[in-house]
Amino acid sequence: MAEKPGLFRLAVDIGGTFTDVVLEGPNGSATAKVLTTPAAPEEGVLNGVEDVLAETGADAGDVSVVLHGTTLATNAIIERKGAKVALITTEGFRDVLEIGYETRFNQYDVFIDKPEALVPRKRRLTVPERVDVSGKVLKPLDEAAVVDLLPELDEMEVDSVTVGFLHSYANPDHERRVRDILNEHRPGLSVSLSSEVCPEIREYERLTTATANAYVRPLMARYLENLESRLKALGAACPILLMTSGGGLTDLKTARMLPIRLVESGPAGGAILATRIAAELGLRKVISFDMGGTTAKICLIDDFQAQKAREFEVDRQARFRKGSGLPLRIPVIEMVEIGAGGGSIARVDAMQRITIGPDSAGSDPGPAAYGQGGERPTITDADIHLGRIDPQRFAAGKVPLAPDRAEAAINNDVAGPLGLSSHMAAFGIVEMVDETMANAARVHAVEQGRAASDYTVIAFGGAAPLHAGRFAEKLAVSRIIVPTDAGVGSAVGFLRAPVAYEVVRSRNLRLRHFDAEMVNEIFRDMHSEALEVVRAGAPGSGLIESRLAYMRYLGQGHEIAVALPAEPLGDDAGQILQDAFDAAYSRLYARTLPNAEVEVLTWGLTLTTPDNAPELLVETAERHACDAVGVRQIFEPESGEVRDIPLFWRPDLSPGAAVSGPAVIAEEATSTFVPAAFSAHIADNGYIIIDRNEEASP
Q: Which CATH number belongs to the domain containing residue 239 in this structure?
């Protein structure tokens, strides 16, 4: 169904604490921030949708497209609340999920906790079959053995099955035949094939990705079906597009089949927003800082492009430790995500230190100040007690706050055990979380060979504008941008994302024996697969195709991405790929290896709709003073006293309005805290630009 021009577009982002909704129409936008309803997420969505429709006077039938992102898949994996999954694999390979890389993420710690496999050993079943690396069948599939597994599957009462055979990326016929058998005998069973979820080499990553897909597929299928039916009942009979982890939009059919591609969909929307803002302001080095109710997400954006990866880890057992989580091999925007959000719980550990998260109070019961039964202090409780949040304006006044409950929780769990005042304990909580987030950004930048101090921070999400000032101070960053509708930033990012889909295929090929026709056939198949998905979401749009080859020297453990022309390859393709590889390798390592043989492991193709770059903003408004709407009593840690600082209402501030810190700029979905070392002004497009004062420069 084609999108109707000139009507409303609806964006929805479900987080662990809040569900954000944005309705964009011909005359502007309306936003809503409502508590997430974990038992039935679609209820929170409908609550937010009804709010924005009522605000604009629009009818659900006026909505031309729904753009959606969610953390439901991620949370299901982390909390181990997914389906009961069985794995059917090649005889002799049932323990791949346990063996993993045969490495330890901390080799000197004998007590490390490795991530628990999503499928326990008793539910990993095998059948005789074997395919080699080229796709040649060495041992035919024993179909009778597959049928013999049915009583075991029944006895286990599994909801979902993963089929993952050795080298199925080269020849998926055996996996497809198993699916046919299961569909014939158990038609209601959800079946995920590793050759469809992740058709790449490296058995461990392929199986963890496929089992994770099977683990969340029944949950996501039910949710998406419920959401679709509820929106139709409301009158919104329009396409629903889902944000993928790689920053593109995909159709509902693909999302139901491959929900693992949605695990980082919410954070990806935020990165898309930051990328657009960077282009609009001409900022070539940007840190995207997205802090919501449950997590904080940090992403580096260079030259108006968010960094991308083909693999990331979920459910890390050790913070910042690569290898301590479950690897998922999907296209993803590269970022670091930590358990530091407004709902993250603060406590005192055995060594009398304040620690934060990673557990969160979420939306139910929520922070103590929500008055819904939460008794543990959270970051939101600390911000309230420090005076940074106006209880009357929080979440547009739809979530009433009880500051006395926040103070009591802080006293009971932190101030009392440490012998501190409630204000100093609250400051300790926010200082610890700010340091944790700054350290995560610092480490992430160093890993990329960057210096965080060279960047500008773009802060959005319900909690980020409150903490961006101190976050920037710790990183020695001099400028912060808080965009309009910052409190629902990821949802706004969905509205700016292109419809796109990436396909990868592993097919090993040495350049010395390059087969251009075989490669062209691989790209034709990938193009057809991507085209089906993209056309479903953007039927009449122009398309841009990009191709990659993941290459390495023979014998190396990892490969690099090399761009290829989006056209059929000819007889000279081997030399073209060699030259492109040499250039890419030299850029990374300042050298090549003469006479070393080169091979391609994996091919990639992306189809995307055009992404219209925003116009470069030129500020013209003159700076001028503005009137505060009130005062906030803020705790000042240097003096240990509470002092009055001005409170501004963001919608009242015109372009050029200047604010000196310390001050609070409040709006419906968030508040921005301007520290004493910074000054802020409103740009021509409504963004809050916060600059470090010259006398306070690091």
A: 3.30.420.40
Residues in the chain, overall count: 698
Residue pair 385/422 in contact (Cβ under 8 Å)? The answer is yes
Last residue of a domain, one of 217, 241, 271: 217
Q: Give, in order, the Cα–Cα distances in Å from 557 to each of 384, 552, 553.
A: 50, 8, 9
What is the residue type of 188?
G
Q: How far apart are CA 42 and CA 22, in angstroms?
A: 15
Same domain, 510 and 564: yes
Side chain identity, residue 475: L
Which residues fall within 8 angstroms of residue 419, CB to CB, at 6 or more apart?
Answer: none
Cβ–Cβ < 8 Å for 18, 395? yes
> Which stretches of 59-172 are DSSP H helices?
72-78, 96-99, 143-148, 150-156
Residues 6+ apart with CB under 8 A from 430: 379, 382, 383, 386, 467, 470
Q: What span, in angstroms and rounded, lies between the C-alpha atoms of 16 and 75? A: 8
d(CA 334, CA 329): 12
pTM score, whole prediction: 0.87
Q: What angle (nearest 5°) sits at the alpha carbon of residue 284, between those of residues 282 and 289?
A: 100
- Does residue 697 carry a pLDDT above 70? no
* DSSP per-residue letters across 210-278: HHHHHHHHHHHHHHHHHHHHHHHHHT--S-EEEE-TTS-EEEHHHHHH-GGGGTTHHHHHHHHHHHHHH
Residues 644 and 681 in one domain: yes
Is 416 part of any domain? no
| 75-130 per-position pLDDT tens digit | 788 778 889 999 999 999 999 998 887 777 777 777 777 778 899 999 999 999 99
335 inside domain? no
CA dihedral for 124, 130, 134, 135, sign (positive or negative): negative
The residues, ordered by sequence, that sit 6+ positions from 150 with a Cβ below 8 Å of its Cβ are 185, 186
Read off the amino acid at residue 534.
V
Element holding 165 (H helix, E strand): none
Q: Where are the beta strands (DSSP E) in 326-451?
A: 326-328, 332-333, 336-338, 344-348, 354-360
pLDDT band at 307 (very low <50, low <70, confident <90, very high): confident
Please indicate, yes or no, whether residues 66 and 96 belong to a single structural domain of this protein: no
Residues 71/294, Cβ–Cβ less than 8 Å: yes
Residue 650 structure tokens: 């963001």
Residue 659 exposure: Cα atoms within 13 Å on the Cβ side: 31
Listed in sequence order, the DSSP H helices in 396-554 are 403-410, 416-418, 422-447, 464-475, 489-496, 516-537
Pair 586, 689 in one domain: no
Phi, psi angles (nearest 5°) of residue 384: -65, -45
What does the pLDDT average to over 297-304? Answer: 91
Cα–Cα distance, 682 to 653 (Å, whole number)? 7
CA proximity to 691, closest of 619, 629, 613: 619
What is the CB neighbour count within 10 angstroms for residue 642? 13
Q: Which domain holds residue 13?
A: 8-77+221-262
Kindly state the tokens that stand for 624.
């001028």
Shared domain for 64 and 89, answered yes or no, is no
pLDDT in tens, 363-373: 888 899 888 88
pLDDT band at 1, cuts 50/70/90? Answer: very low
Identity (one letter) of the amino acid at 376? Answer: R
